[in-house]
């Protein structure tokens, strides 16, 4: 019986090599399960490089995205999406994705998002929501340019 399972698994891997990749969405930089991260980013690379081919890449946090962008010299990113923290639930891989450039980011707060790395930050689609979280957990609200610089300074 055990041999049959091993053979079935091997056959599955040969016939459908991407089968198990669907079960998790790994951060390309650190290997964490980005689908479980409350601070997930998704990037579409249109023009790749020798090291980074064109495609869709997931990240557990902005820190990993900053590291990736440094490797993408000469490549072109067409879109960056981030998980809206106000829509995250206890359900696996929940939360709407919003344009990163339009989000409001709460940093230096007393809340630690699941599946993320430092510097911790939360993204919100509405400034009013970010303000409510700031009132409850402290911190500062930054826009996309400010949070990008903030994250680079933390390296």
In angstroms, what is the radius of gyration?
18 Å
Task: Please give the alpha-carbon distance between the first and last residues.
Answer: 51 Å
* Spatial order of strands in the largest sheet: 2-1-3-4
The main sheet comes to:
4 strands, antiparallel
Pick out the low-confidence regions: 16-23
Query: How many helices?
Result: 4
Number of strands: 7
What does this structure look like?
With 155 residues, the chain is an alpha+beta fold. The chain has one domain. 29% of the residues lie in helices and 22% in strands. The chain has helices at 2-15, 62-71, 127-137, 144-153, and strands at 41-47, 55-59, 76-83, 97-99, 104-107, 121-124, 140-142. Strands 2-1-3-4 form a 4-stranded antiparallel sheet. The chain has a 3-stranded antiparallel sheet with strand order 6-5-7. The longest helix is centred in the N-terminal third of the chain and has 14 residues, at 2-15.
Helix-strand blueprint:
Layout (H helix, E strand, L loop, with lengths): L1 H14 L25 E7 L7 E5 L2 H10 L4 E8 L13 E3 L4 E4 L13 E4 L2 H11 L2 E3 L1 H10 L2
Antiparallel strand pairs: 1-2, 1-3, 3-4, 5-6, 5-7
Properties at a glance:
155 residues, alpha+beta, four-stranded antiparallel beta sheet, three-stranded antiparallel beta sheet, 4 helices, 7 strands, 22% strand
Briefly say what this structure is.
The protein is an alpha+beta fold and 155 residues long. Helices cover 29% and strands 22% of the residues. It has one domain.
């Amino acid at each position: 019986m055990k041999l049959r399972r091993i053979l079935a698994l091997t056959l599955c891997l040969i016939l459908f090599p991407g089968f198990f990749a669907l079960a998790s969405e790994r951060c390309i930089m650190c290997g964490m399960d980005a689908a479980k991260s409350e601070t997930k980013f998704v990037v579409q690379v249109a023009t790749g490089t020798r090291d980074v081919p064109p495609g869709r890449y997931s990240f557990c946090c902005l820190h990993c995205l900053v590291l990736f962008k440094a490797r993408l010299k000469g490549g072109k990113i067409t879109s960056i999406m981030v998980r809206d923290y106000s829509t995250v639930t206890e359900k696996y891989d929940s939360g709407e994705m919003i344009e990163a450039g339009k989000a409001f980011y709460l940093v230096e707060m007393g809340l630690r998002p699941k599946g993320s790395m430092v510097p911790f930050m939360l993204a919100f689609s509405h400034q009013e929501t970010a303000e409510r979280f700031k009132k409850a957990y402290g911190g500062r609200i930054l826009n996309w340019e400010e949070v990008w610089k903030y994250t680079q300074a933390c390296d």
